[in-house]
Design brief:
The chain has 446 residues and is mostly helical. It has helices at 2-26, 46-49, 120-123, 141-144, 156-199, 204-230, 303-318, 329-358, 361-364, 369-373, 440-445; strands at 85-86, 130-131, 381-382, 388-390, 417-419, 422-424. Helix content is 38%, strand content 3%. A two-stranded antiparallel sheet has the order 1-2. Strands 3-4 form a two-stranded antiparallel sheet.
Length: 446
């Protein structure tokens, strides 16, 4: 009976533990806490939450799953000197030193100095000092790979000064070259002036005009050189004589796409790809727009034809016809053209059948509604002088010469006949311009 009582109590305890576990998972009971007061997630599996038998824990805890403080390694993350020399320069080769430069801190295969024709071991000259070797370095994974550890930021000032000196030297050379060019131009102008004075054919007006021309040329060259300095940027190759750029860059004189419409709600501009797919001038009329976006190009040319062919290929594949636009474009083009012809013929046959059955052909031959009603929906706005301000303009004349005007009884124009290297009239074969037409008699006489 005692055994049954013990088994019953154990079963009840196990049942209560299960109910409490389900309640904690459902969130109706508070979560279990560990020895540090942190909540233990009730959804953690049992094989993770239970500690091994060799870890003596009197209460639930996840300390055995965390990193133990006594096993955490402490690494040295301090600054240390790197790549610096120390010690006096030796005058005699030492045993075990580098055979190339004479330093004791590395061997010949690890030497970073320029390989000498005769090493320091045999020449006994130009010994390099020893490098600073830091001791007891205990760095972690990141510390061992820190390329900037030991770098002094003040050393970069030398690089800046070096580039500054190069820039100043370039400016001095440019100033000298401009000064020489200006002297040559002045001397050339003086020589011309002296030659004209000697000949006695020049006057004051011509000499002053030449001086103005020389000054204008000099000012233009100065402007070109000034702008050439500003265009010197990565990705471009600029010359003051030829405005050329390498790379697909926008010409600096053109307006940028994002400056066409400054409304923030207008077309989106992607600075990475330099593309504006939508039209920034949606509100204005199509005639006044300077730029319509990249999507406008996608609907011009043969794009629509290719889209119709692709649609035809999909529909043909659904009906069991093996055709593909990219795999066999020739077959695709022939089938699509044959399909269009059959479609047009079918439409024409249907139209003729309806007209033959019901009649009404006379209504199709009627003139357009604009001529019948003597009015149109096209808006045209005129000024007081009669010029078109807005709307459809007058058709531009194709040629400045009058066409289809036959003179002197001719029925064709001059130039419609060619024979023996001469132009003439086709109606009478006469090669004399503005002659009188003689008709068929002229052809027989010619």
């Amino acid at each position: 009976s005692a055994r049954m009582a013990t088994g019953g109590s154990a079963r009840d305890d196990w049942k209560k533990r299960k109910e409490l576990e389900e309640a904690r998972k459902a969130g109706t009971a508070p979560a279990e806490t560990d020895e540090d007061g942190k909540d233990i997630n009730p959804h953690i599996p049992q094989y993770i939450s239970e500690a091994p038998w060799y870890v003596s824990l009197n209460r639930p805890s996840l300390r055995h799953q965390r990193e133990q403080p006594e096993k955490v390694k402490q690494f040295d993350a301090g600054w240390y000197r790197k790549g610096q020399k120390e010690g006096p320069v030796r005058t005699k080769f030492r045993d075990g030193a580098c055979e190339n430069c004479g330093s004791m801190t590395h061997k010949k295969k690890d030497c970073l100095e320029r390989p000498r024709k005769i090493g320091a071991k045999f020449s006994g000259e130009n010994f390099c000092p020893d490098e600073h070797v830091p001791l007891n370095l205990d760095h972690g994974f990141d510390g061992k790979r820190d390329r900037w550890n030991g770098y002094d930021a003040e050393d970069y000032q030398k690089v800046i000064e070096h580039h500054h000196q190069i820039e100043m030297a370039k400016r001095r050379l440019k100033a000298d070259s401009l000064q020489e060019e200006s002297k040559k131009a002045v001397e050339k102008a003086k020589d011309k002036k002296d030659k004209k004075e000697k000949k006695g054919s020049g006057d004051d007006a011509s000499s002053s005009s030449e001086d103005d021309e020389v000054k204008a040329v000099d000012s233009e060259e100065d402007d070109e050189d000034k702008y050439a300095d500003q265009v010197d940027m990565p990705g471009t190759k600029f010359d003051s004589k030829h405005r050329t750029t390498i790379r697909n860059l926008r010409i600096r004189e053109d307006t940028a796409k994002y400056l066409y419409n400054l409304d923030p709600n207008s077309a989106h501009y992607d600075p990475k790809t330099r593309s504006m797919r939508d039209n920034p001038f949606r509100s204005s009329s199509r005639e006044d727009t300077l730029y319509r976006g990249e999507n406008f190009v996608r609907h011009t040319g043969e794009v629509n034809t290719m889209a119709h062919q692709q649609l035809f290929a999909w529909e043909a594949k659904d009906k069991g016809l093996d055709v593909h636009q990219q795999a066999d474009p020739t077959k695709m083009e022939l089938l699509y053209s044959d399909f269009r012809k059959k479609k047009e013929n079918f439409k024409q046959d249907v139209k003729e059948g309806i007209l033959e059955k019901y009649g009404g052909l006379e209504h199709l031959d009627a003139p357009p509604a604009e001529l019948l009603l003597a009015q149109t929906e096209n808006y045209v706005e005129y000024s007081r002088t009669g010029h078109v301000i807005k709307g459809q303009e007058k058709a531009v004349t194709k040629s400045k010469y009058e066409e289809d005007i036959y003179l002197n009884n001719h029925t064709s124009v001059y130039g419609s006949f060619w024979e023996a290297g001469q132009w003439g009239y086709a109606c009478c074969h006469s090669c004399v311009k503005m002659s009188y037409c003689t008709g068929e008699q002229g052809k027989i006489a010619a």
